[in-house]
Amino acid sequence: MPEFCSCGTALVDAARFCHRCGKPAFEPAVSLEPVASETPPPLPAGYLPLEGLPVSFRNPIAVRVAFLMSVGIILIGMIPGLQIFLVIWWLAAGWGAVLLYRRLTGFALSVRAGARLGSITGVLIFLGLLIILAITMALTGKEVLDEMTKQDPRIATVINDPPVLVLGIVMLVGMMFAMVVGMCAAGGALGARFVQRSGAGNTPSV
User: Which residues fall within 8 angstroms of residue 202, CB to CB, at 6 or more apart?
Assistant: First the structure.
């Protein structure tokens, strides 16, 4: 520490400033150590941004949208008088799923991704209908089969022949699955095309 200021005034012991001109008695030490920058926390393993997440059962938004649409369509199908329009409702389910996905995420789907979202919706609708059908047959199946047998005695032959009965059930379930999933996928593709033509949002490659 100097004894005199540059103005010639004698400095008091341990003084930080000159009591006459106010000039600092010494320059403060400057730390040359680099300041540690704050690094963002690491992303979880397997993290993928929403815009890069393909439409599949691993996409939580897609599964949530498909589940909501499937529940709505199943409930509509249980209303008397509306069951004859099930094919139209399945088509509308895929369409509505694409529009709801666009509303929740802000991303418009490609036609292929829209069809994929519609097919996911169709699978959930099919599973719901299959569960309802199984419960119905467990509760009233005997009465239904008896009524069908009265109307067509040949049905009794099919019922009493297990291989033929199993084959018929498998074919019926397969046709139902193809119809439900196919119509929902077509509705999803049409909905995605509609969103693209309306220019609502960007279309990510999903």
Answer: 107, 108
